[in-house]
Fold:
Amino acid sequence: MTAFINSLGIILYATLVYMTPLLYAGLGSCFSEVSGVVNIGIEGMMTAGAFTGTVVAYFTGNPWIGFLCGGLAGAFFGMLHAFATVRLGADQTIAGTAINMLGPGIVIMIAKVLFNSTDTPALKQGVQTIPKLFSGLFDTTTTFGRFMDNVFATYASTYLVFIAAIIVWFVFYKTRFGLRLRACGEHPQACETLGIDVIRMRFACVSLSGFLAGLGGACVTMTISTQFRPISIVGHGFIAIAAVIFGKFRPQGALLGCLLFGFCSGLKVVLGGSSAIDMQLISMIPYVVTVIVLVLFVGKSHVPSANGKPYIKSK
Structure:
């Protein structure tokens, strides 16, 4: 029984840790997709955020400045994507693919200049990484105390992302901005007749999408790995997009989808300690679940009517 509770606590802890960067990126994807712009460049924006957050935290010694700068780096690539797709009317899928190649390419080049390596130096745990909350609050000498410590003594970024999910839900469904945002993704021409600047709205949403994706990337290297490597962000962006599709392009649905994929990663951590199962098969779990989710839910999700369609302002 004790072993089961300990394993459950580890799974829940890993679920929350791995879910956090996915949810930041997923919330960002919601902003872009609901406003009518396909953004498959989430992966590249996360990579830029991961590298920038790590480097800034390394040189400043302040994880929160690094975390914010990671978001700003993602926002920069978000604005590039917005400029190409919203302002110039470029194909949104091709532009997103370009971001996914441009982001990693630029940060690896900068890493070679700064550190003469594609990897950054490791961050000091608890000093340059995002701190944990409620650490040491529970008595870890008992089974129940270890379980509670695993569940609640997690990174501050995890608590922040739950708050962010609530705020995004409120913005989407309880504010005038959210109403206009959703309308731009459904009927942009009708929005224009009501005096809503569709171009500006979409540009802002895609930029915000990049900012949140950058925060998600910074979470990966400032909590899980404590170091940027070219393979730090591999598939995270696409898994976040799959979670948004699973959640029917709603922030509350994206939260459930990210919890599902986070659980798969947590299960991978626990099963990884078993020599009876091949590690390669275990590593496949999150990606296999991603494919299954896409097959089962992509046709059932309500995609905004104008999603992926360039908007040309009437003269």
Remarks:
- The CA atoms of residues 73 and 130 lie 18 Å apart.
- The chain has a mean pLDDT of 88.
- The chain has one domain: 2-233.
